[in-house]
Design brief:
This protein starts with a strand and ends in a 24-residue tail after the last helix. The strands form 2 sheets. The chain has a 5-stranded mixed sheet with strand order 3-2-1-4-5, sandwiched between helices. It has a 5-stranded mixed sheet with strand order 8-7-6-9-10, with helices on both faces. The protein folds into 2 domains: 163 residues, Nucleotidyltransferase, domain 5; 170 residues, ATPase, nucleotide binding domain (Nucleotidyltransferase, domain 5), CATH 3.30.420.40. The protein has 351 residues and is an alpha/beta fold. The chain binds 5'-O-[(R)-(carboxyoxy)(hydroxy)phosphoryl]adenosine and zinc ion.
Length: 351
């Protein structure tokens, strides 16, 4: 197939996003535009994402965001070769808005629809930004997910581990809320932690003695809450020290798990240099990134972290996943239903 230009639409959480991405015949991608409108203001007063408000904001803004994406790329909708939209997993109201819009455009233009799994979009982003080749290991750490996934090919995934309770971004957000640092908590907590002493508190590291590649963050969250309640009222120094100690703890948990996952990769895929790709909003955290780089150096693995704007939710990753699927001949029926849950190793991901 020659060059294809794909429109990508992302509405599964609290960003309304659209992008145009081109993929050439040799598989190289180029972002022509990438427009993201975050709904932070809509949800700020509630300390978290309110699904109904999110869906309504997607309805209000998506058309403008798609228009802006076309304008910035200098490409009319009619010149697009296919329409890709996140079809799940995510907040179902928002997913419906994006997927239905994509179906309408596809039907009106007579162009193929690609129903994209949001997790696959995160998983394939490093092929757009860094041209990485299969197979590789992905660590997805976002507000909704914390998983190790073996990426064998487009549509071909094996989940090696997940969280048994909170996602890592969620743990950051809840801890930040507890410390009155605001929402979204990850960046605020990282900023506070930079002023603190990471060794003042020793928090538990659940599951860490076990070999399994799963995470658990809810016990840590409780420990942080008890510590904070014991010290109340908290001084700025207490807040910074708790934030720094929390961050150091999760960075260590992630690093230990990454080492185990890379060792498994080396065992099960001999002949391939272990490659770890980090995706999701938490990939922006510098302490976690430094821990992962140390593990990569120690195990002889390569570490790839796409730029933060492409690690957090965006339309370019959805367009790119759509382009990769289209290049393999995939397209979806206009009856494709939005899904609140959709694991990456679902058999219907296969092309
Ligand atoms: O991938 P993302 O934008 O949205 C989804 O959840 O899909 O990830 C957002 C999450 C939030 O929980 C946010 O607090 C966290 O990523 N995050 C961070 C940082 N930046 C964003 N967590 C820790 N450190 C950061 N610098
Ligand atoms: Zn995401």
């Amino acid at each position: 197939q020659a060059q294809a230009v794909i429109l990508g639409i992302e509405t599964s959480c609290d960003e309304t996003a659209a992008a145009l991405v081109a993929r050439d015949a040799s598989g190289n991608g180029k972002i022509l535009s990438n427009v993201v409108r975050s709904q932070l203001d809509e949800h700020a007063a509630f300390g978290g994402v309110v699904p109904e408000l999110a869906a309504r904001a997607h309805v209000a803004f998506l058309d403008h965001i798609i228009e802006a994406a076309c304008r910035q790329a200098g490409i009319g909708l009619a010149e697009v070769d296919a329409i890709a939209a996140t079809a799940g997993p995510g907040l179902i109201g928002g997913v419906l808005v994006g997927l239905t819009t994509a179906k309408a455009i596809a039907a009106a233009l007579g162009k193929p629809l690609i129903a994209v799994n949001h997790l696959e979009a995160h998983a394939l982003t490093a092929r757009l930004t860094d041209g990485v080749a299969f197979p590789y290991l992905m660590l997805l750490v976002s507000g909704g997910h914390s998983q190790f996934v073996l990426v064998r090919g487009v549509g071909d995934y094996a989940r090696w581990g997940t969280t048994i309770d909170d996602a890592l971004g969620e743990a950051f957000d809840k801890t930040a809320k507890l410390l009155s640092l605001g929402h979204p908590g990850g960046p605020a907590l990282e900023a506070a932690a930079s002023q603190g002493n990471p060794r003042r508190f020793r928090f538990p590291r659940p599951l860490l003695r076990e070999e399994r590649l799963d995470f658990s963050f809810s016990g840590l969250k409780t420990a942080v809450r008890l510590e904070a309640e014991g010290l109340a009222p908290l001084t700025d120094k207490d807040v910074a020290d708790i934030a720094a100690s929390f961050q150091a703890t999760v960075a260590e948990i992630v690093a230990v798990r990454a080492r185990q996952a890379l060792e498994r990769f080396a065992r099960e895929l001999p002949g391939h240099r272990p490659l770890l790709v980090v995706a999701g909003g938490v990939a922006a955290n510098r302490t976690i990134g430094a821990g992962l780089q140390r593990i990569a150096d120690e195990t002889g693995a390569e570490l790839v972290v796409p730029p933060p704007a492409l690690c957090t939710d965006n339309g370019a990753m959805v367009a790119w996943a759509g382009a990769e699927r289209l290049a393999l001949g995939a397209a979806d029926d206009l009856s494709f239903a939005a899904r609140a849950r959709w694991p990456l190793d679902d058999p219907d991901m296969r092309i």
